[in-house]
Amino acid sequence: MRGTIKKDGTSWYVLYDLGKDPVTGKRKQKKKRGFRTKKDAEKYLSEQLNAIEKGTYFEPKDITFGEYLDYWLEKHAKPNTAVRTLEGYNYIIQQHLKPSLSNIQIAKLQPFHLQEYYSQKLENGKFDGTGLSAQSVKHHHRLIHKALKDAVKWLFLVRNVAENVTPPKTTKTKMKIWDNEQLKIFLKAAKDSVYYTVYLTASYTGMRRGEVLGLRWQDVDFNNNIIFVRQALQEVKKVGLTFKEPKSGNSRSISITPTLAKELKKVYNQILVNKLSLGQMYTDLDLVFAQKNGKPIQPAELAKNYRKVVENSGLHYIRFHDLRHTHATLLLQQGVHPKIVSERLGHSTIGITMDTYTHVLPNMQKEAALQFDKLIK
């Protein structure tokens, strides 16, 4: 065996032979410290010797953190994440992480490097000299932690130094929603909008904007009044509008009311008229909500119209995405089981639903207590 394992105080280290240096002819050895247990050291040594035998060995000290991040983007993020997520990763890495941490050798990256980076970003991380929000810096931390976790898995590193760093604390912002009367006011104000049924669908189903704009007629079952969420519209830089799987990666079904089904049938009849009038000029993507020529609705145009409708309604402004939160909150307030709400929203677990809508739970608790009291009396 061309390596040894020795204890150094409370930790272990390994020493192994890399053969002769082709330039100097001298024997090269590699020492790696910091293993918490002998078993960890044995595993690492075995992997390194195996890599030397196969000719796949490399020395992590020769790779900078910036070089590794580029490698991670190409080898892991690109094939395993959604396009928009990849764009976000790339932006954080190129605009923030690499300018600050690029030249540090990955093997020498320490917790204090990251802690100082977070502090600096909170103080003056924006291009105008002001600080990034704690939530933004926390996104940076999550990316770094994920990238370094993969580095450990791929044997670039022995440990993930991001685990020894405390990301900034974030305060949960109060969710902005409308009550049932306010939602009625909004929908009444939107009645004359070309996007009225888009707003109605979002309000009545809790679907995300991209899911609503990606809805196809083949995904609408009028016999059973069910919508199947199977794709979403997304806007990708330098590409334009494309379709992707729903955020959770899985399709889901949502029961709809007769009111919404009736409005959707009106849309369907109007599309038939558009197809007849435009003929071959109509782009048939089977979309429920589309421009007059059948092409996808531009999210920016929808956002502009939505803001105008809200202003005309006299209501306080909430985002389009908050129609989804409004839908979920109203259901929970009516006593609908969180599991059902979770399924309608497409959350991967009911825990996400419960954590997101904790503001509703105190009232539900009070109502449950009153109901129990009536039952026993």
Brief characterization of the structure:
The chain has helices spanning 38-54, 65-80, 83-101, 111-124, 134-153, 180-189, 196-205, 209-213, 258-278, 299-313, 322-333, 338-345, 350-356, 361-376, and strands spanning 3-8, 11-20, 27-35, 220-221, 226-229, 232-236, 240-244, 252-255. It has 377 residues and is mainly α. It has 3 domains: 3-52, no CATH class; 65-164, DNA polymerase, domain 1 (Orthogonal Bundle); 180-317, Orthogonal Bundle (hpI Integrase, Chain A), CATH 1.10.443.10.
Task: Set out the fold topology.
Layout: E1 3-8, E2 11-20, E3 27-35, H1 38-54, H2 65-80, H3 83-101, H4 111-124, H5 134-153, H6 180-189, H7 196-205, H8 209-213, E4 220-221, E5 226-229, E6 232-236, E7 240-244, E8 252-255, H9 258-278, H10 299-313, H11 322-333, H12 338-345, H13 350-356, H14 361-376
Antiparallel strand pairs: 1-2, 2-3, 4-5, 5-8, 6-7
